[in-house]
Amino acid sequence: MLFQQPLHVLNLFVNNVFRNKLSNLQQNKIFQEFNFTHCNLFGLWVQITFLNASGRLIILYSKHTAQLYRILIAIIFVFQFFSKPVIANPVEITLGETISLALRSNRSVKGAYLDRVVQKLSLEVSQDKFNPDVTLTANQMLSQTTTTSDTTEKSKLHTRTNTLTSELSMIKTIQTGGNIVFSWARTDQFSKITGSDANTWMAQFTQPLLKGAGIDVNTASVTLAEMDEQSNLLSLKDSVTSTVSSVIRSFRSYAQAKRQVEIARASVKRAKDLLGMNRVLISLGRMAANEIIQTESDVANREFSYETALNSRDNSRLSLLKVLDIDRHTMIIPMEEEASVPVHPDFQICLDMALKNRSDHLNTLILLERAKINLMLAKDNRLWTLDATGSYSITDEKQHTGADSDTDVWSVGLSLSAPIYGDLTRKLSLISAQTSLKKAQLSLEESLQNIEIEVQDAVREVETKLKQVGMAKRARILSEKKLDVEEEKLKVGRSSNFQLVSFQNELVTALNEELNANIAYRNALTSLDLVIGNTLFTWQIEYNKEYDKWPGK
Question: Are 191 and 336 members of one domain?
Answer without folding.
Answer: no
